[in-house]
Amino acid sequence: MARRLAGEKLAIATHNPGKLVEIRDLLAPFGIATAGAAALGVPEPEETGSTFAENAALKARAVAAASGLPALADDSGLVVPALDGAPGIYSARWAGPGRDFAAAMRRVERELAGRDPSASFVAALALAWPDGHAECFPGEVRGRLVFPPRGELGFGYDPIFVPLGAMETFGEMEPQKKHAMSHRADAFRKLAAACLGGAP
């Protein structure tokens, strides 16, 4: 039985502004008060896990311990089978220390040249408490990559990813449309059912 979040303020274990907005949007219907890790003065720990789930749990536990609040962390990335799953858990690192995702998308295009453009966005959401307990939930959305990048919405690799059944990239979609089908939303639905009592 998963542990329930019961009315506590929630720390969001990210310094990524785009990710912070998406997670807050997902939480909004539940009326949960949130604070980002940066606003709490809590640094993000080094991601030393070998999977999305390990990294999400590591971040959530570190921020929960440092803040004294339950903490929600996401680890997510672009998985391209033709690139042996890269960039995968290294998706942010492909963008370099300056988080230059335009350069990262050019690298994907270069390395993928002439190969199958199938791809997935994969996420793991971890909810941890200051006592170290954590719950983790996976999410995935499948699609294909397109070049050149399209759209100014979203963040990260969104402008090159078209989910199955859609014509627009995540970079072209209005936030609410993206939230309805994203990998993060898939993981969040599972988290909400287990830890927040289901749909608001």
Tell me the domain tally: 1
User: Strand arrangement, largest sheet?
Assistant: 2-1-3-4-5-6
Number of strands: 6
The count of helical stretches stands at 5
Under the CATH scheme, which architecture would be assigned? Answer: Alpha-Beta Complex
Q: How big a fraction of the residues is strand? A: 15-25%
Draw up the topology in text:
Blueprint: E1 10-12, H1 17-27, E2 34-36, H2 52-67, E3 71-79, H3 101-112, E4 118-128, E5 134-145, E6 161-163, H4 175-181, H5 183-195
Parallel strand pairs: 1-2, 1-3
Antiparallel strand pairs: 3-4, 4-5, 5-6
Describe the structure.
- This protein has 200 residues and is of the alpha/beta class.
- It has a single domain, classed as Alpha-Beta Complex (Maf protein), CATH 3.90.950.
- The protein has 5 helices and 6 strands; from the N terminus they run E-H-E-H-E-H-E-E-E-H-H.
- Strands 2-1-3-4-5-6 form a 6-stranded mixed β-sheet.
- Strand 1 (10-12), helix 1 (17-27) and strand 2 form a beta-alpha-beta unit.
Put the structure in a nutshell.
With 200 residues, the protein is α/β, with parallel strands linked by helices. The chain has helices at residues 17-27, 52-67, 101-112, 175-181, 183-195; strands spanning 10-12, 34-36, 71-79, 118-128, 134-145, 161-163. The protein has one domain: Maf protein (Alpha-Beta Complex).
